[in-house]
Design brief:
This protein is of the alpha+beta class. It has ten helices and 17 strands.
């Protein structure tokens, strides 16, 4: 008998999702737990596994269309069955052997490398575009990602193997065509989510932003020395997180959320890191940062950044930060006025360190000055507290020994 699988709530109170692409066409067979479709939620692109084996009889929506939670996503039955379009069922189905979260497995499909799964190219749209730009045949590439998925690194390695040397990745974006007067361009789902969150934060939180800069000579030297000693690329965000943690401990108002008339101090230090992706700004979360070493934080930042750019992070990796750091210096930025994310009380923006004249020991010298911008919720944090927090962060960044000890 045909089974109607309806779009589940795959996390954080999801109400709808957009179909990105179908992995199993109508008429083809599917195994239990085999990814059947990619959908885009407010922040993540995720694969949804099939709850049962059989033949795909019907797709609930075409690529680019939106489905509400509870609507038919896919119909699975026997090969000889048909499923008439007029066969509808109540909007909310009974539970599927336990809870939906069990089927979704936090948005990460179980790995069952069947012959069918191995013969189908698994790659996100951004990776497919990169392969096309570099002339790489994905059918000839072995994926190292989850469930055999081909990653950006796999494509780059394949291109370098063919060329016999380093390959320069093409720019992620090209200049758009000239604008057409009066043209209406619908916002993407992610951009709509960003717009909603920014509007909410700006409307609810009275922002105050304080600006300063530090001489980053010792910070940059420490980063270079650590990279040389451990043979790794250490993201600047790892050092920024480590330098900020002591200040968050000393001033818990910055690691908290305002709930009505109560300030709720958070018991963990889950640091959000802003990531610039081709689809828009995402904030990935380094959970339990205070329990990780510097190198562990660096590795996690790299993993989250790559996952965010390929849109393969789960909801739990994109929500729940207690404090946020935005490294706009990676894009050449300086001072800014970052918007405090809803549910938190502060955000630190760090700009690019550029050589400028400054005074040291009464003499004018040229040194790399790093801009800092701290925005905070003025309902919770006054100017004096803001300055004390910023002073500790500045001291730590100027002298890394203070937080590396």
């Amino acid at each position: 008998m045909a089974y109607e699988f309806r779009l589940p709530d795959i996390g954080e109170g999801l109400t709808e999702a957009e179909v990105v692409r179908w992995l199993i066409p109508v008429g083809e067979s599917v195994k239990v737990d085999q990814p059947v479709v990619e959908v885009e939620t407010d922040k993540a692109v995720v694969e949804i596994p099939s709850p049962r084996g059989g033949t795909v009889l019907h797709h609930g929506a075409e690529a680019g269309q939106t489905l509400a939670v509870g609507e038919i996503l896919v119909v699975i039955g026997e090969a000889e069955e048909t499923w008439p379009a007029e066969s509808t069922a109540p909007a909310i189905p009974p539970p599927i052997v336990g809870t939906i979260s069990e089927a979704a497995e936090e948005l990460v499909p179980r790995v069952h490398k069947t012959e069918e799964a191995l013969t189908r190219v698994q790659a996100l749209p951004l990776v497919r575009k990169l392969a096309g730009d570099l002339g790489v045949d994905l059918n000839q590439v072995t994926g190292t990602g989850p469930n055999g998925r081909i990653t950006r690194e796999d494509v780059m390695a394949a291109a370098e193997a063919v060329s016999g040397g380093p390959v320069i990745e093409p720019p992620p974006m090209t200049l758009p065509p000239p604008p057409v007067a009066g043209e209406r361009r619908p916002l993407s789902r992610l951009r709509r989510t960003i717009a909603t969150n920014m509007s909410r934060s700006w409307a609810e939180i009275p922002h105050v932003t304080t600006f300063d800069e530090i001489v980053a000579s010792r910070l940059l030297a420490a980063r270079k020395a650590l990279e040389a000693r451990h043979h790794v690329k250490l993201p600047l965000e790892a050092l920024l997180i480590k330098a900020t943690l002591p200040a968050l401990v000393a001033f818990p108002e910055f690691n908290a959320t305002l709930d009505g008339d109560d300030l709720v101090v958070k018991g963990s230090y889950d640091i959000g890191v802003a990531v610039d992706t081709p689809d828009g700004l995402l904030v990935a979360v380094v959970t339990g940062a205070d329990q990780r070493s510097l190198l562990e934080i660096g590795s996690e930042v790299q993993r989250l950044a790559e996952g965010a750019k390929e849109r393969k992070l789960g909801v739990s990796e994109l929500t729940g930060q207690s404090f946020t750091i935005s490294n706009i210096g990676a894009l050449g930025g300086g001072h800014g006025t970052p918007i405090v994310p809803s549910g938190t009380t502060a955000i630190l923006s760090v700009g690019r360190a550029n050589d400028k004249p400054t005074v040291e020991d009464g003499k004018v010298v040229v040194a790399p000055l790093m801009p800092l911008s701290l925005s905070y919720d003025h309902r919770v944090i006054d100017g004096g507290l803001g300055r004390r927090f910023m002073t500790m962060v500045m001291e730590n960044l100027a002298e890394p020994a203070l937080f590396l000890a």
